[in-house]
Amino acid sequence: MKPMLLAAMIAAISGSAFAEEVVIYSSRGEQLIKPILDVYKKETGVDVKLVSDKEGPLMERLRAEGSNTPADILMTVDAGNLWQASNMGLLKAVKSPTLNANIPVHLRDPKNEWFGLSVRARTLFYNTQKVKPGQLSSYEDLADPKWKGKLCLRTSKKVYNQSLVAMFLAEYGPVKTERIVKGWMDNLATDVFPDDTKMLEAIAAGQCEVGIANTYYYGRLMKKTPNLPVGLFWANQNGKGSHVNVSGAGVTRYAKNEKGAVKLLEWLSSAKAQNLYADVDMEYPVNTKVKPAPEVAAWGPFKSSLINVSNAGTRQADAVKLMDRVGYK
Amino acid sequence: MQWSAMRWRVVVVFISLVTLIPLSVIFASIGSPDAAIWSHLIDYQLPGILLNTLWLVLGVGSGVFLIGVPLAWLVSVYDFPGRRFFTWALMLPLAMPAYVMAFSQLGLLEFTGPIQTWLRDTYGTSSWVPSARSTGGVIVILTLAFYPYVYLLARNAFSTMGRRALEVGQSLGLSRSQGFWRVALPMARPWIIGGMTLALMETLADFGAVAIFNYDTFTNAIYKAWFSFFSLDTAKQLASLLVTMVFVLVWFEQSARGRRAYTQAGRAAPLPRLRLGGWRAVGATLLAALVFALAFALPVVQLVFWAVSVWVEELNADLAAYVGRSLLLSLMAAALVAAVALLLSYAQRRDKRMTTHAFAKIATLGYAVPGTVLAVGVFVPIAWLDNALIDVFKDWLPEGTTAILKGTLLIMLLAFVARFLAVGHSAIDAAMHRITASQEEAARILGYSGWRLAARLHLPLLTGGILTAMLMVFVDVMKEMPITLMTRPFGWDTLSVRIFNLTAEGQWDRAALPAIAIVLAGLIPVILLSRQKDSA
């Protein structure tokens, strides 16, 4: 028994020494990323290790480890988080014609330190029994007094709303943005919700009539309970387009296997992998050559805002301060 | 000074380092406040959250007292239908993470939940139902989540108090309920305060449960500074403030307690139970059943309800592996924390000087720090040490070595000591108070000293306290998330890591199964403990 165990241990050690390995620090749920990494492993033989935690602790971890980090890739949701990692000097610029070709310019870092891998649209939802789609138009319209007592929102603590308001700041400037968010506060039907799903359920139950959520929450909810009277409306189609954000990744500054990390990112952005990466959470592929999953495509085509998502990072602190000022909890 | 006079202080200081080092990392930020963020927080955040935090501390503090102490008294000195069941069942909410309880309770109570939906379907409106997402609601939920600390420790106090004290009271003409107020309650003070301190430290450090209620407390400012303003330094400064406040409060209570003794009079013969009859018996059963239903049965039913729809995806070999790792980790951490707490408490008994006592208090402060902040406090010095070691020994280490200490089980367990020493210490230290100086003297006269004295006299008398400590630490480690995430060895994913992965993208219903597994695993020590109690 003992010699066998020893042999197995030696095999394990030497095995890890020879097989190529890429280590990912990820705040994206393991169940959403593991299946696709298994495919990569099968195709290439590269061993991909995943360490999951929240964004903040992962970044502190990278900072504390410095040049001795085992991580090759940092993967998070929301461009604001990726921007922050880049700002802290944790990421490395990557020159990859493949990534640049696969990912639209507004969905990646202008300095090429991080890249969007899936697109998440944040748009309007309404109770189909109480609201006609024709009554809806834009995010800012929800600040109109006609929606008084009819609006539901998720908490401003969630980075998705911080990014949304940050993008308003980029598009409209501080004065108009503050007026919009203040108007939302005046229209709230009830205290803000801890997550998008709860908020969508509240719309369905008639606690309120309209709200803002990411589309994949809607997709999941409707898959479970298809008869809910909730409809999706693409916001700001007559203006700049609906707000989009990304989940994405970057190569760490002190990556031990930089080449392998870039190769993995390129593969993730490829036509072959994009559906696997985006469909598992009902998100949109970042690669425009790839079609979304059928149930996602059923929500129809939409115009998305072309403002670079890095604005979510640069203006996040201002957005949070603004939301605090108007009492958006 | 001689070594023999110093050694216990050295032990205490050495133990306190485990907490002191991460706390130093947090306090080191104090020198460089970011004026812009602070002025924003002072203008728009701090006044409101300080008031909220105060309400929460007052509400949860009195809540856990009013539920935990009477229930402990009830099951300790009375007999009523169902007592044997409720004695251990009332501990069970401890096994449920507070954020899971908050999420499932809210799932039941809010506008879209089954109760209000039923009301609307039947009566057309539910608008008269008060919102659960309110100050009152969050106080009730946290009280239900944390009262077991008080219940468990108070029950320990009442059952080890011995009948003599109450009998003396009775001979002086006190009825049993007067005996409770005049004798039992004052004599149980270290236990009750210990339980309340744990409940309040956990309340102050909680982020998950209050976030579900959208109730902004001090932790909200800490996380806002870190995650929204990207200023970890400001977050650390706020956390330092929080820890300092807790330290002052704990110190204040200890000084107020003074030099009163809490030893038992005579042998620890259990109290004869008074059989309740008639409406009193019904009332006692109903009260225990109500608390059990609200704090445990209802949320579990809700979890099972969710789990039914997803068990196909979640019930697989991975789940068994998560359970196995969770159990192993919790067991190791419980044993280690109890051992360290025992040593700490014993050292405090041998050396009663003020500075020794201060270091012992510092050692237990890790419980008051929001978990994520403490995790950083633990990780930063370890990573620094690793970097230094790798630098020194780089010629001998294999190419590409990135870790020596970090990512080892040892570091993870030490981090749990830093976090949960307060939990282990409160149970053991309270039991230590029961041992009298005359018992020690008697043992000394019989020729026992040093370690033999501790092994022959203290250890047997502390068994109940040690088991309680291990139970509480066991379930706490099972639920713990931020430190587990940050320090776990590669591949050591536990049940709480699984819950994190699922809830990170809002898949709460899928998290129901691992949450149930945590509750079931937490049942094991509770049942073992109650067995041990019954046979003792």
Automatic annotation (TrEMBL), chain B:
Topological relation to the membrane, as annotated: Multi-pass membrane protein
Chain ranges passing through the membrane: 52-73, 85-108, 128-154, 191-215, 235-252, 281-307, 327-347, 359-384, 404-424, 453-475, 511-530
Residue ranges of domain ABC transmembrane type-1 in the record: 50-251, 323-529
Keyword field contains Ion transport: no
UniProt-annotated location(s): Cell inner membrane; Cell membrane
Principal subcellular localisation of the protein: membrane
Source organism superkingdom: Bacteria
Family membership noted in the UniProt record: Belongs to the binding-protein-dependent transport system permease family.
Protein's UniProt name: Iron ABC transporter permease
